[in-house]
Design a protein that fits this description.
The chain has 21 helices and 12 strands. The chain is an alpha+beta fold. The chain has a single domain, classed as Cytochrome p450. It has a 5-stranded mixed sheet with strand order 1-2-8-5-3. Strands 4-12-9 form a 3-stranded antiparallel sheet. Bound molecules: protoporphyrin IX containing FE. It is found in: Endoplasmic reticulum membrane.
């Protein structure tokens, strides 16, 4: 009798659990069907329930092409859609309609794809949101003060000199030059020195574990973005790539932790007031001394974030600039004239005043970032329902902002694929929409390192131009631009350099 009633009790519990799950599933299904009805009012590829468009999406350089072709196809739409499984993604391809993202104090949360960066960057400035983000942003903003940036100008000049020496040797030895690799190593040295006060000597020694781990982990995160089979942590960390990810993670975190601890032990408050060269890290350590709630882990998150955001982005932008300059002789001629008039024959380092005078180089850099924004797309999660050009976009869903296409809007950039630095002359840009040009994003979540990056690009390019003439070896199509985390060439950018006498 007791056995019977226990059985009955267990069966009832089981039925209740099943009924509960069923109710939840039906509720979810009704929500999903409603979502499909609302979202599919937007244009997009035909979708398959539950799978969405995942089976139609291309990878590597084909993906960027696909996004470009679809954006052109839906060019009259304010926004279009891609389904990643059951998750709709609203694709923003026109600056005119990006207001809801950039002007809003609310839609500042990043999309779930950024979670793949969490094991490495934690919830540092790039990946956090809400109160944590605003506190951090307030803390870090002063570290980009122009007086502090002046200090980093010395680092940039020194590393640019090492790079031009290496390039001269390659020219003398008639070796092939992949300018993307050279600039990547140089930018890594600049950011290591500026962020951590460490010289990893990436330009001369590519075998450093840290240098290799930075490159490999960026690659692994990209693979994860594209492959739904790698999305679950549970499965991912059992795969070969997941294990490799963990291996790199350990190298990176061990390195930054060691540097932070050593730097903290050595840091004397008078260092910060003296002429001794400081790093971002020192400023964060000082903030920690004034505010006990900041932990070493908090500092590591930010240092790792700077390392990630602060080198590939600049290197990619400067490399695309070399490619474009090397295939537009009339632009190169003007650049050479400008650099010669500012620097003459002197081999001295560039000063801030020199940089201000390199006005045409400024236009070239801007136009390069229009055609090749280093971060070709970035994501947000809507924190409220919004209206975009008469379409309802839903709270909790993802926005993908495609800077690469926003920069190709014919309304603001006639003949958009043409490289024309004069588009950025003041008289030609005065009527442009505020969000038609967003290489550094816009609004509250814009790039905090923007001025650092612009300064670095100018120093690196000015140094190449003052000593060399650049000739591009391939066309853009042959280089196959890939829109991963960073917009980079599929297989480097080969160029020919000729020493200027
Ligand atoms: C040409 C070079 C660069 C470009 C094109 C660029 C572009 C961007 C973009 C588009 C974002 C927004 C990303 C998003 O919303 O997901 C961003 C954010 C950020 N960038 Fe940059 N970046 C560059 C260089 C740098 C450098 C040199 C640093 C550091 C020294 C840096 C640090 C950051 C940080 C910390 C954020 C997050 C800011 C926040 O959310 O408050 N970036 N960058």
């Amino acid at each position: 009798m007791i056995e019977l009633s226990v059985n009955f009790f267990l069966k009832t519990i089981y039925m209740l659990i099943v009924a509960n799950l069923l109710v939840k599933f039906v509720k979810w299904l009704i929500g999903y069907i409603n979502k499909i009805r609302t979202v599919n009012k937007l244009k997009g590829l035909p979708m398959v329930p539950f799978l969405g468009n995942i089976h139609q999406l291309k990878t590597k350089h084909e993906f960027l092409k696909q996004i470009r072709d679809l954006s052109y196809k839906f060019k009259d739409e304010p926004v279009w859609r891609i389904w990643l499984g059951t998750m709709p993604n609203y694709v923003f391809h026109k600056g005119d309609y990006a207001e809801v993202l950039f002007s809003s104090a609310k839609n500042t949360q990043k999309s779930i794809q950024y979670n793949f960066l969490h094991p490495w960057l934690g919830t540092g400035l790039l990946t956090s949101y809400g109160d944590k983000w605003s506190t951090r942003r307030r803390l870090i903003t002063p570290t980009f003060h122009f007086e502090i940036l002046n200090d980093f100008l010395n680092v940039m000049n020194e590393q640019a000199l090492i790079m031009t020496d290496i390039l001269s040797d390659l020219v003398k030895n008639k070796e092939e030059i992949n300018i993307f690799e050279r600039l990547k190593a140089c930018a890594l040295d600049v950011i290591c020195e500026s962020a951590m006060g460490q010289n990893v000597n990436a330009q001369n020694d590519q075998s450093s574990d840290y240098v290799r781990a930075v490159a490999r982990i960026s690659e692994l995160v990209t693979y994860r973005f594209y492959d739904p089979l790698e999305w679950s942590d549970f499965i991912y960390f059992k795969t070969q790539r997941g294990k490799d990810f963990k291996r790199c993670l350990k190298i990176l975190h061990d390195f930054t932790t060691k540097v932070i601890m050593e730097r903290d032990a050595d840091l004397d408050d008078s260092d910060l007031k003296s002429k001794k060269r400081i790093a971002f890290l020192d400023l964060l350590l000082r903030a920690k001394r004034e505010d006990q709630t900041i932990t070493f882990d908090d500092i590591r998150e930010e240092v790792d974030t700077f390392m990630f955001e602060g080198h590939d982005t600049t290197a990619a932008a400067a490399s695309w600039a070399c490619q474009l300059i090397g295939s537009h002789p009339e632009v190169q001629k003007k650049l050479h004239e400008e650099i010669d008039s500012v620097m003459g024959q002197s081999g001295r380092p560039l000063t801030n005043d020199d940089l201000k005078e390199l006005k045409y180089l400024d236009l070239v850099i801007k136009e390069t970032l229009r055609l090749f924004p280093s971060v070709p797309y970035f994501g947000r999660t809507f924190s409220e329902d919004c209206d975009v050009g008469g379409h309802k976009v839903l709270k909790g869903e993802t926005a993908v902002i495609v800077a690469y296409m926003i920069h190709r809007d014919e309304k603001y950039y006639p003949d958009p694929e043409r490289f024309d630095p004069d588009r950025f002359l003041p008289e030609n840009s005065k009527d442009r929409h505020a969000y038609a040009y967003i290489p550094f994003s816009a609004g509250r979540r814009n790039c905090i390192g923007q001025r650092f990056a612009q300064m670095e690009e100018k120093v690196l390019l000015a140094n190449i131009l003052r000593y060399f003439e650049i000739k591009s070896m391939k066309t853009i199509d042959e280089l196959k631009p890939v829109g991963d985390l960073i917009l980079h060439p599929n297989d480097g950018i080969p160029i020919e350099l000729k020493l200027r006498c």
